[in-house]
Amino acid sequence: RARRGGMGGRAVGARAGGKRADASAGTSHAMDEDIDSGDSADEEAAQHAEVMAAEADAEETSDERRVRLAKEMLGAMDEAQKRIGAGGSDMVGKQLEEDALRQAGRWRQSIASSLLGHRVAAEEVRVLRGIQLSPTCVAVSPDEAAAYCGCKDGSITRWDLSTGQRLQMRHASATAHGHGHRGSVLSIALSGDGRILASAGQDARVLLWDARSQEMLKELHGHRKAVNALAVRRDAPDADLYSGSADRCGRVWNLEQQAFVETLFGHQEGITALDALGANTLVSGAEDRSVRLWKVAEEAQLLFCGHSAAVDAVAMLSPSTFVSGSQDGSICLWSETRKKALATRTGAHGPSPFG
User: pLDDT grade, residue 233 (50/70/90)?
Assistant: First the structure.
């Protein structure tokens, strides 16, 4: 209203003649300044509102990000279907179903039957040599192009699986100029994208390495005794790193920020094995003869007992099912819905020294 009134006042003053126009010139000029000042303030307020709205839009939550990524994936699949044509609709549907199951951590693939009775020819076996002391742990990169091995002398060796070429990572073992492990390397693990290698050792340290340059990135402290096990979620590129130690504690580390997240308490003896699969789901085995399934985000854990000796190996088949192997010679199949093992194979690797 003020803007319309001001414009009308200036028009009337212009028609009235020279003196009146001159007399009102100063007033009109002042009104113009007031009007311009108001317009400028309105424009600044509008611009500020637009900036605030843009910032609010930019701050999307994790749920909104997942929805956006899902929509982008569906759009990409629609484009793929258009390119493939009507005949490829079944293939696109299967791919969508597989992606959804993988995202939920419920994708299953039957491969054991295809390996039953399979024999590997001797000429297809490549023996990798060159390390001085006994190897203690092995990890294969996600693209299966390289294998990493930790040894009792504290060194870490990388092999190119296509050529067999060996490369010892610089400063992997502690020397006068090195920053590596002081003692045996007990476990190694690779991030989901294969860019970061984590190693743990008898010196109670977890070290992060750049897998491409072989340079050490960060030294993670917190455990008080030897770190026996490492695990990274296999189905996510940006997953956390888990470590299990003889100090009976598990620890969660953020690989992106290379920082400590939280400690997992529960085992009564040293943790010997870890594996991770699914969103914030971890399974651990320990010298206390128990297996525990951790719901990290929910800060909950489930206890499973059935072995008569220390548990040395665990592996997750799905976020709710897993297997464990013990020094008593048995292998057990577990489900989070039952406290007792679904199946137990005793003497899986011959007679047990524990009877």
Answer: confident
